[in-house]
Structures are given as structure tokens and as C-alpha cells.
């Protein structure tokens, strides 16, 4: 699998606005610019197959947060990124962005394509979106594990008990990267209103079927 370091902000700007040629010489007074807060660095995995997504034709109005891991097969090593990527490939699923435990952001599907991350569900204020949230949303997966109760439908209690308790929940690095990513997405997509009716968890769209990002996810860490 080929890995490549890229500047997400630069790529997204290029895709949205193109590259403008510089035709006039400009004198730069200060070349020491702190861009740490402006750049979001993504490690790009080879894009998921096209049949894991489709061309987007609807306006993007929502952002959905998930968690994912490989705890069912490897409770001793549930957070291997290659294993998580294989899950998407095997089950025909997809998501736009993935954030690992160190806060590394991976771009899997372009935002101008519909990723298969939401599945069946509904929101009380958006009845027209019943079972159609994929078409209107951007999906972000955090590599994480929820509480034992939240993981019941995914793995058994015996398997869950093999997981190091220190691995449960989210890391500071993930919250920091997620906030940067969310801010970046909202800035570029003003059709996604910056409130909890439009920035939602999978569990809010599919209660009873999905439990992510779950009770351990702190929405205030990303400004909500």
C-alpha cells in the first residue's frame, strides 16, 4: 500500500479554486510564517475503489462522526490502520476521512463523492433524509472503541475484556485533529450549519442500530 504525505489544505484549495499563475513579481518582506494552525496534514491511502462511493449530486448539509476499530478480530491490536482500511474494502463501505490514535488524518474518498458510511436511519428534523444521509453528508471515522455496552453489537464481552482499558475512548491528538478538520470542512462548506443539528453522531441518526461515537466522545472538545 502506498502512503504519501500531503497538505490537505493545499489539495482542497487546488480542487476547489484551481491554481492561479503568478504573473507579477512580489517582494516578500517576511518569509517566516507560522502555518502550524493553518495546515492540516493528511496521510493519503490509495483511494478506496470507485464502487465504494458514487458521484455526489446533492448539496452537503451534514457532517457525521463515527468510530471504528478491528477489535473484533484483534483485541490485542485493534487500531492498526491497514486492518481498518481492509474492513472498508471487504464490506464495501467507505468514509471521507479517518483519524488514527496519533491524530493522523487520512483521506479515503473525495468530498465530491458520496461515501457509504451512514446506512439506514433518520433525523426528526429532516424526514426527507430518511435512509439517505450518505447523499447529504461528509463522514469522519475516528479509530476508537466505546464502552462495553456500546460495543455489544460489534464484539462479545469476552473479546472486549481482552482489550487494554487504556485503549478505550479517544486521544487528545484525535480531538485536536478532528477540531481542525471539522473547522476546515465547515469553512469550505457553508451549507453545513455549525450546530448540533447538522454536525451529528452516527448514533443520533441510527439510534438502536449504531452507538458511535458514543458516550465517551466529548463534543465540547470540538466546540459543540
Automatic annotation (TrEMBL):
One term of GO molecular function: N-acetylmuramoyl-L-alanine amidase activity
EC code: 3.5.1.28
Membrane-crossing residue ranges in chain numbering: none
UniProt keyword Mitochondrion, yes or no: no
Catalytic class of the enzyme: hydrolase
Record keywords: Cell wall biogenesis/degradation, Hydrolase
Gene3D superfamilies in UniProt: Peptidoglycan recognition protein-like
CDD domains: PGRP
GO terms for biological process, alphabetical: cell wall organization; peptidoglycan catabolic process; peptidoglycan turnover
Catalytic activity: Hydrolyzes the link between N-acetylmuramoyl residues and L-amino acid residues in certain cell-wall glycopeptides
Pfam family, any one: Amidase_2
Ranges for domain N-acetylmuramoyl-L-alanine amidase: 48-214
The UniProt record lists the keyword Transmembrane: no
InterPro entries from the UniProt entry: Amidase/PGRP_sf (IPR036505), Amidase_domain (IPR002502), NAMLAA_amidase_2 (IPR051206)
Protein name: N-acetylmuramoyl-L-alanine amidase
Species of the source: Bacillus timonensis
Lineage, broadest ranks: Bacteria, Bacillati, Bacillota, Bacilli, Bacillales
Amino acid at each position: 500500500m502506498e502512503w504519501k504525505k500531503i497538505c490537505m489544505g493545499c489539495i482542497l484549495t487546488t480542487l476547489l479554486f484551481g491554481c492561479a499563475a503568478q504573473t507579477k513579481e512580489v517582494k516578500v518582506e517576511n518569509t517566516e510564517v507560522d502555518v502550524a494552525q493553518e495546515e492540516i496534514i493528511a496521510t493519503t491511502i490509495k483511494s478506496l475503489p470507485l464502487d465504494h462511493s458514487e458521484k455526489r449530486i446533492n448539496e452537503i448539509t451534514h457532517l457525521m462522526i463515527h468510530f471504528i476499530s478491528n477489535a473484533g478480530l484483534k483485541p490485542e491490536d485493534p487500531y492498526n490502520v491497514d486492518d481498518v482500511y481492509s474492513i472498508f474494502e471487504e464490506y464495501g463501505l467507505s468514509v471521507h476521512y479517518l483519524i488514527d490514535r496519533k491524530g493522523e488524518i487520512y483521506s479515503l474518498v473525495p468530498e465530491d463523492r458520496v461515501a457509504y458510511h451512514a446506512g439506514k436511519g433518520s433525523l426528526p428534523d429532516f424526514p426527507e433524509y430518511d435512509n439517505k444521509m450518505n447523499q447529504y453528508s461528509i463522514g469522519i471515522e475516528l479509530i476508537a472503541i466505546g464502552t462495553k455496552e456500546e460495543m455489544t453489537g460489534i464484539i462479545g464481552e469476552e473479546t472486549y475484556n481482552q482489550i487494554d482499558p487504556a485503549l478505550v475512548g479517544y486521544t487528545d491528538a484525535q480531538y485536536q485533529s478532528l477540531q481542525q478538520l471539522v473547522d476546515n470542512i465547515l469553512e469550505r462548506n457553508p451549507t453545513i450549519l455549525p450546530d448540533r443539528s447538522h454536525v451529528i453522531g452516527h448514533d443520533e441518526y441510527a439510534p438502536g442500530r449504531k452507538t458511535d461515537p458514543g458516550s465517551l466522545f466529548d463534543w465540547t472538545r470540538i466546540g459543540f
